Amino acid sequence: MNQSNRSFAQIALGDAASLSRIVGRDGTELFAAVTGDADPVHFDPALAVAGAAGQLAPHAMWSAALVAAVLATELPGPGTTLLRQECAFLRPVEPGQCITATVTVRQKLAAEGQLLFDTICVNQDGEEVLRGTAAVLPPAQPAEWPCAEEGEEPRRRHGRFRSIVEEARAGAPILTAIVHPCSAAAILAALEIRDEGLVEPVLVGPEAKIRAAAEAAGASLEGLRIENAEHSHAAAARAVEMAASGQVQALMKGSLHSDELLGAVVASGSGLRTERRISHVYVMDVPAYAKPLVVTDAAINLAPTLEQKRDICQNAIDLLHSMGIEQPQVAVLAAVETVNPHMPSTLDAAALTVMAARGQITGAMVDGPLAFDNAISLAAARTKGIASPVAGHADILLVPDLEAGNMLAKQLIYFAGADAAGLVLGARVPIILTSRADSLKTRVASAALAKLVAMRRAGVKA
Predict the structure, then answer these.
(1) What CATH code would you report for 158-273+434-462?
(2) Residues contacting residue 8 through CB under 8 Å, at least 6 positions apart
């Protein structure tokens, strides 16, 4: 998708454009790194409480920069020169809030070829956080540029999600139940993946709350089906019922807790349970690694048994088959690469390796125990004299337990700059789990993965 601009003559009084972004810690840290404003009030809760706002307060200029982004990317668009910007900061922006910046053409100055805009930023509750004006010189000629992905900086560009999304765009969007989308962030997430041509959302939850959330987000629900349900529990039950009866092909978490949705999925008689244990996968785009990397399970199974690890492993393998990887390489992780009877994780790893050799795990090369460095670095494996077809080439990292997986995934995200798309597998339909901190790129990638899984189960080739 490309960005296009509009010249002075193509713009009329009253024309408007908006952008919505969630205030995340990553964005705050990057803003501080670029500007040099590392005031601890932006990061340290203890110091922030003593500040004027009484809480963590992201940079005020973050909202002003969002206004500039609307002008530069939407209206007038690429090639715009910002001449001046005036703004009043009306209330602090809080971490996790969804901020919508809107610019509206107030005046056209033909002699100077300039445009004057009214500018406003509101949070997800419709409260104004910024109001002001801006003057710009619009581009002289129409042009198009490739879209930059949200939150992406040049040194972190690796783009492995792009091929996944492009592959998933083939075929019609899949019907997806958005379960209890009763916040502005949940509504915007549903609309974003719809606009990418991946899903056709069905909003399941209290209709009045859904419409109020859409209004707060400044979003239109025109053309979207709403399946009314009294509360979050009822929404989860109704969405599961729709999936079991084939009315939808995937589920996506809205603003309810993950346990509430997954509890409805695994409940006796839900119709979505299979012989497999459900499990979570992070499909990670790590700049320092040559290919996508799956970490499983980092979100659902606390201390899986050997039998459960077999299911977790097979779920991840089947996902990579859906992504077109015919023979994934699975590294079963432990703290060491040798079997130690006092370390149960090494015993499980060895057993899983044998199970794969005997056909109890299919469609992949499985080896373990392997320490993390040996799994992803061929040089590290050679240094230790490890002869393994998986060492240094792993597609899947099967972790010993949830704590290890969660820490590993978050270290890759925060220290290694990885993007992480999340999906729940093992049920009869894929389940998209998102959080408010997810970037647009990872939300779209999660939806793309769900569509690939759904298409494979339906026998449709991407």
Answers:
(1) 3.40.50.10950
(2) 76, 108, 110, 113, 115, 138
